Amino acid sequence: MAVYTEVTDEQITAHLARYDIGELHALKGIAGGVENSNYLLTTDAGTYILTLYEKRVDPADLPFFIGLMEHLSRHGINCPLPIPMRDGATLGTLAGRPAAIISFLDGFEVRRPQPDHCSQVGEALARMHLAGEGFALTRRNGLTLEDWRPLFERSKARADTVQPGLAAMIEAELDYLEKNWTRDLPSGVIHADLFTDNVFFLKGELSGLIDFYFACNDLLAYDLATCINAWCFETNHHFNTTKARALTRGYAGARPLEKGELDALPMLCRGSALRFLLTRLYDWLNVPPGALVTPKNPAEYIAKLKFHQGIARSSLYGLEA
Amino acid sequence: MAVYTEVTDEQITAHLARYDIGELHALKGIAGGVENSNYLLTTDAGTYILTLYEKRVDPADLPFFIGLMEHLSRHGINCPLPIPMRDGATLGTLAGRPAAIISFLDGFEVRRPQPDHCSQVGEALARMHLAGEGFALTRRNGLTLEDWRPLFERSKARADTVQPGLAAMIEAELDYLEKNWTRDLPSGVIHADLFTDNVFFLKGELSGLIDFYFACNDLLAYDLATCINAWCFETNHHFNTTKARALTRGYAGARPLEKGELDALPMLCRGSALRFLLTRLYDWLNVPPGALVTPKNPAEYIAKLKFHQGIARSSLYGLEA
After folding, report:
1. Cα angle vertex A289, ends A288, A293, to 5°?
2. Cβ of B32 and A27 within 8 Å?
3. Beta strands A37-43 and A46-52, pairing class
4. Residues A173-195: what's their mean pLDDT?
5. Which residue among B1, B3, B25 sits closest to A106, beta carbon to beta carbon?
6. Which of A134, A185, B115, B219 is packed most tightly, with the most Cβ within 10 A?
7. Is residue A1 very low, low, confident or very high in pLDDT (cuts 50, 70, 90)?
8. Numbers of helices and strands, H then E, in chain B
9. Residue from the list A31, A107, A290 with its beta carbon closest to the beta carbon of B1
């Protein structure tokens, strides 16, 4: 959760004067989201989300994130649309923080997705990848292959306190991935964090994608691998083949996968599992005093990584090369 | 803040089926509120607040709180209105907790109230007191004179770690109040917690009162005293006579104060200041591990109590007896 930066009535009233969306009706801090402060904002003109970008977000990245939401919205993707101020700018300053007002999307996250949800997510991800073509800005993935070992070094000494043998297991996986990783696959703008809490459904239909604050340029199939990890395991960490089949086929129906992408899928799933294992491990070992957010247990991604290590053929994910 | 109890999409969908407010559009946890879990709920029919009552609320008190909001709404007070289920009940169970869906009030708290806000709050409080007449249920104030000493006993040993001499100061104040407190004044239903975050304004006009979860039967002028403490001190703890005059005159314009109430005002302000000092002191000394809420510093109410101890005549609060 949280609201890290508090906004006074004077501040929000002055801020709204720069917009064309009428006067303030209500402003309520939203629980949820670990990076930024989010408020539900109601004005004469309707309901919006007000986001204040906190320290973990580099202000230099904001034009990419904001511009991407505008680009995707214009190209038919149901995602939050930044609202421009009277002078056309979409990024302002409020309570000392960079701030944007974005459209409010109806819908609700599905905590226990069914195959039909997975199929819709796969299709939406592929459509997002296609819609991202032609977006002018680029952003390097700050959590890709080269970043994993330095990140691991910061947790290495205490990794075995989480699970005996974990440090050696990660070390071996890094060796494997550094040797086998490929960049010779279709790339473009990826969401990079399309977990269940970032996809809204309304009456069974996917109604929108949110939270583009990890979006970057990278391999498109790596984004699919992240979705496989996020959507196709049960809470006991068992892999659900039916869901994976629905997800990958939903994706391929909108954007057919190349043979190279299919062949690379087990490795990409390993890489994605390691990426989330490493960030969770770091956060788990470094809970700041007074933290408002409970860190996620890295054990989930240890199990997922081990699963993918045992996969020899992509067909297990539901598609034949 | 917080959302203490998480609600899944299946749970909220099943719960909404008992109501006549259409299907789910969105459900977002709200930051803010220290007692219960609050969600912003949007359905086909509009926007609501979903409240799950947490452990600090005694389920036996819920009919009083819910019934009071219904009674006050029916009698012209702009406060949240509990929405009945198809079977007429307003209190259900969701995610293992007692739960109610109440109407959403537009408006926003004023962090730095001006005299005009204070005047409106005074009038609204008086109107609430008048509207409370005829409400059938009663609830004892669980934080009144008899409760203060037992509450103090739980903090006494460590009170001086907060401020040297604090234990003796509270002890002397308890002696004074136990000797001088009166019950021989008009009583009725009081809000008992009408701080700035529980009053909404919209474009300068008071738009509603919320959070009736401390409401009880007690002296009406004690409620006014609590508002004086909450609304008429600056952040440096200096008393603002202009605001107090606006507040008390706003109140008296809707419900004239009896001479006995006016005479008792300094003592009631002392009692109310001590009540909030004692709960804040206890919370300050007993932060549970993993707390989601930062406790409020008791020093603010030490300063307020000391101010009132020096007041001999009620006229300083803005009204002549």
Report:
1. 60
2. no
3. antiparallel
4. 97
5. B25
6. B219
7. very low
8. 10, 9
9. A31
Residue A95 pLDDT exceeds 60: yes
Q: Residue A308 is encoded by which pair of tokens?
A: 């993918």
Q: Which residues of B touch A108 (CB under 8 A)?
A: 9, 12, 24-27
Tell me if the domain spanning A9-103 has CATH number 3.30.200.20: yes
**Best residue in A3, A10, A30 for a mutation probing chain B (most B CBs within 10 Å):** A30
Region for B217 from its dihedrals, namely left if φ exceeds 0, alpha if ψ lies in -120 to 50, beta otherwise: beta
Chain B: closest CA distance from residue A104 (Å): 10
Residue among B3, B8, B30 with most chain A CBs within 10 A, to mutate? B30
| Spatial separation of the C-alpha atoms in residues A64 and A62, rounded to whole Å | 5
Q: How many CB atoms lie within 10 A of CB A197?
A: 15
The whole-number average pLDDT for the span A122-134 is 97
Query: For the segment A240-279, what is each residue's pLDDT rounded down to a tens digit?
Result: 999 999 999 999 999 999 999 999 999 999 999 999 999 9
pLDDT in tens, B265-292: 999 999 999 999 999 999 999 887 666 5
CATH architecture of the domain covering A115-317? Alpha-Beta Complex (3.90)
Domain boundaries, chain A: 9-103, 115-317
Which parts of chain B register pLDDT below 70? 1-2, 32-34, 289-293, 321
- Residue A292's pLDDT band (boundaries 50, 70, 90)? low
CA distance A243 to A259: 21
Contacts A–B by Cβ distance under 8 A: 94
Please state the ipTM of this predicted complex: 0.75
Q: Tell me whether residues A32 and B29 touch, CB distance under 8 A.
A: yes
